[in-house]
Amino acid sequence: MVFGPGKKGEKKGRDFTAFQYEEVTVGEPAGSFIGKTTKIKGKIVADEDLTIEGEVKGTVKANKTLTIGRSGNVNADIKASVVEIFGVARGNIAASEKVAIMSDGRYNGNLQSKKLVVEEGAVLIGDINKELETEKPTPKTRKKTSPPQGETEAKKIERPEEKKEQVSQDSQEPNESEQ
């Protein structure tokens, strides 16, 4: 509210008139924001988009998009639908939809996602797995893989002839009475 003087010419004390402004909403709310000077150690859970420009250590779970801003420094296990890295991130990431490491972004850790985008100039160090944990086959359904071409598995197969030779060699040992 903004206040101003009453009608012109009135000199009786102070009179204020109030003006109302309409609330203006542009699009949907941007979600949660962790600022540059904020440091958090622990667990963060967000049911909305989350942007981190500060420092976070621990675990982060965002049901929507997690954005690590240019000044963001995250050392955490991350689980989100979409993860966008503009700053620095370390730890494990499990994204149900996509991970995008932007040109200024740096990531070091184990990454699981259906889609991966790495812009030119970005740094990615670690393991990448397209399969999410919920999609891994159970041990009963795993297929036995054959060795690479040119290599064979080593198994000793005993043949009946070898067994006979062993028996005959054992029987040929000199007895004490024969010597």
**Count of beta strands:** 11
The major pleated sheet works out as:
9 strands, parallel
The residue-averaged pLDDT reads 76
Count of helical stretches: 1
Task: Sum up the overall morphology in one term.
Answer: globular
Query: Unreliable runs, pLDDT <50, ≥5 residues?
Result: 21-27, 150-156
Strand content: over 45%
What radius of gyration results from the CA coordinates? 35 Å
Description of the molecule:
This protein has one helix at 160-171, and strands at residues 2-5, 16-19, 32-34, 39-46, 50-52, 55-68, 73-85, 88-90, 93-101, 106-118, 123-129. It has 179 residues and is mainly β. The protein contains one helix and eleven strands; from the N terminus they run βββββββββββα. Strands 3, 4, 5, 6, 7, 8, 9, 10 and 11 form a nine-stranded parallel β-sheet that branches. The chain has a two-stranded antiparallel ribbon with strand order 1-2. Helix content is 7%, strand content 45%. It has a domain at 25-135.
Furnish the topology, listing elements before pairings.
Elements: E1 2-5, E2 16-19, E3 32-34, E4 39-46, E5 50-52, E6 55-68, E7 73-85, E8 88-90, E9 93-101, E10 106-118, E11 123-129, H1 160-171
Parallel strand pairs: 3-5, 4-6, 5-6, 6-7, 7-8, 7-9, 8-10, 9-10, 10-11
Antiparallel strand pairs: 1-2
